[in-house]
Design brief:
Blueprint lengths: L1 H57 L11 H28 L4 H28 L5 H74 L5 H61 L4 H15 L10 H14 L9 H6 L7 H27 L3 H9 L6 H61 L3
Helix pairs in contact: 1-2, 1-4, 1-5, 1-11, 3-4, 4-5, 5-6, 5-11, 7-9, 9-10, 9-11
Amino acid sequence: MCLLIGAGLVILIAVAATGLSTTWDAIQHRAAPRTVAATQLNLALNDMDAQAANILLSSGDSGTGKGRLDESYSKANGFYGDAQQTISRSLRTLGAASEGDTVTEDTVVALTDDFAHYQELIGRALENDGHPGGKDAARADYRQATDLLAEQLLPQARKLVDANNAVYEGEYEAARTDLEVQLVTEAVLGVLLLVVLVVLQVRLARSFRRVFNPALVAAALCALFAVVCGSRLLAVSVEQLKVARHDSFDSVVALSRAKAIGYDANADESRFLLDATRRDLYEKSFLDKSQQLYGLDGASISSYDAKLDQTWAAYQRDHGDEQFTGEYRRELDNITFAGEREAAEKTVEAYAVYQKDDRTFRRLIAEGKTQEATVFCIGWASDTSNAHFGVWTKALDQVTAINSAHHEAAIATGRDAVNTQAPTAAGALLLGGGLLILGLRPRLAEFR
């Protein structure tokens, strides 16, 4: 009986360890990287479109280059190329990862085709901008490109983020359920084994008139040690899976979405400058994206800043205050790690500065100071909107880095538990089985 229960525990620990190794491999090499690749794709699409608009804004007169904002033009071209490479790399990663998943594979194929068309339109816009008098034609081409982005590319990219994140969530839930069952089973078998060993010790003591059997006592201690190691393996794995999935990666996804939305909102300011015929549309789009980031019920462009200041002050007094919604609410409701709250709060403060810059930008436009507004929007001086936008996105990156580091640490801790606790528990059980046989042989020989 003892040997059968011990064998059952060894099998249970081996199955749990094998399953956990597979789960950690799936998280580290497939589920998390795919989701990150999808978020990078979403961000890079927004960045590429923003930089295309900035190129057209900073290029000066078509065909002559007169009035070109050299620094803005050069940086926009560089960032455009970087975003283009990121998109191509992400599409390759997602394409390879989607094999066998028809829905995701179809989305990647459609996105790849639409991206090729998008690049064609942007290329035509930039080509027309290089011809004398070609600025209007360039705007028309860019308008088609940004419509394709909004109507096709971005919805597809967000679909890929959600799909890959859902795969990760599914793998997490399956692993957590298995671990909970294994933890209960291990506890039942462990208690049963210890009880049987104690009963056996008592019966031997009574039958052979001996106080205790040293080998049997040692076997019981091995069994107890193995049960503790097995319980620790399963309990640590449950905790680290939660850290890897919800405590850290939920924030990584929320912050990545926030950054992508922010780039799209920033692009709306450039589009507002570039295409005067659509200014109402782009102003509304900017506000909609602001609401996705830091949602304020009933806020307009003119009232958004005051409401943001008011609700943020209320939140700092009481972190349970829920007067705002959006991606910021997702992150602030998931504060887990040391330094995360302070870093997250800095991003809101930087975001508030950028929002106030937007009002300055729109005031300059209303006053007819278009060139001044353009420099303020896409320039690189430390007091420009562009610089403050950079401060905000770097602050987002710092919070993301905190969560990413804990995600990696959770995976490492989980793997370490598998590599140390599982073989230790199995070894203790095997040693206990050997000691049990060793202890019983002399007693059984007395029956001969």
